[in-house]
Design brief:
Layout: H1 3-26, H2 43-94, H3 115-124, E1 138-140, E2 163-165, E3 173-176, E4 189-190, E5 199-200, E6 218-222, E7 235-237
Antiparallel strand pairs: 1-2, 3-6, 4-5, 6-7
Bound molecules: calcium ion (3 copies).
Length: about 240
């Protein structure tokens, strides 16, 4: 290549160089000072990221807790419906629902708390005639009472007066319809945990009519997650 040819090619080379530089700049335009070109995060950027991660973590925890609470509540409601169906079977076999106290079965209960659910548990766990009706349920014995005899030939293998417990571990409340208002009130006295005081239960009325729900059957109630009667988280039939 002579000098003239070389000179003629220089502008072309310079033009290609400019194009290459321009292409390099424009192929992926990045504004100056962009954060991902910086050698590291600034303190403010790190704080922003941490705050966002914290918010996401708390939202996830809240969602998980809400799902757990909902599932636990659903288990108690399903248990109450299950017991309701079993009580209907019991009445078909025996002509009536279990009483609200074992005293009506000829056995004096050793104390005056949790009598209703203890009587329900004793009756549905009985091996007499039609066989036991309780299945896949949890039990408590919050008043730790033991009776002298196995009043209904229940299947537990000891004489503890157990209570069917809700999904929170508290004994359910059971009231035969004839005991919604009848004395003694010990049939409606409950101890839901060893840490709380005894509570007096009232059968639930329809607020619109002031008539008792389930007037010809029974009421099964749960004190809910807080373990206290008469609060917003109470569950069960008839509600
Ligand atoms: Ca008792
Ligand atoms: Ca008991
Ligand atoms: Ca409650």
């Amino acid at each position: 290549m002579n000098k003239r040819e070389a000179r003629s090619q220089k502008p072309e080379a310079r033009r290609r160089g400019r194009i290459q530089k321009k292409s390099a700049r424009c192929a992926f335009p990045i504004p100056p000072g962009s954060w991902f070109l910086a050698p590291g995060f600034t303190l403010v950027e790190l704080l922003v990221v941490l705050v966002i991660l914290g918010i996401l973590a708390s939202l996830t925890t809240l969602g998980i807790n809400a799902a757990i609470n909902s599932a636990t509540k659903n288990r108690t409601e399903a248990l109450v419906l299950q017991l309701s169906a079993q009580l209907d079977v019991y009445r078909l076999r025996w002509g009536d629902f279990p009483p609200s106290t074992l005293a009506e079965l000829g056995t004096a209960p050793p104390n005056a708390v949790n009598n209703g659910i203890e009587a329900l548990t004793a009756c549905l766990a009985s091996r007499r005639k039609g066989g036991q009706l309780l299945d896949h349920v949890e039990f408590s014995n919050t008043d730790a009472d033991v009776i002298s005899i196995n009043a209904t030939d229940w299947f537990f293998g000891d004489n503890q007066l157990r209570e069917v417990a809700d999904s929170y571990g508290f004994p359910l409340v059971y009231l035969h319809h004839k005991d919604y208002v009848r004395t003694p009130v010990s049939m409606r006295t409950y101890l839901f945990s060893g840490e709380n005081e005894q509570e007096q239960i009232e059968a639930v009325k329809d607020p619109a009519t002031q008539a008792y729900f389930n007037p010809d059957k029974f009421q099964i109630l749960s004190v809910g997650k807080d373990g206290k009667w008469g609060t917003d988280d109470d569950l069960g039939l008839p509600r």
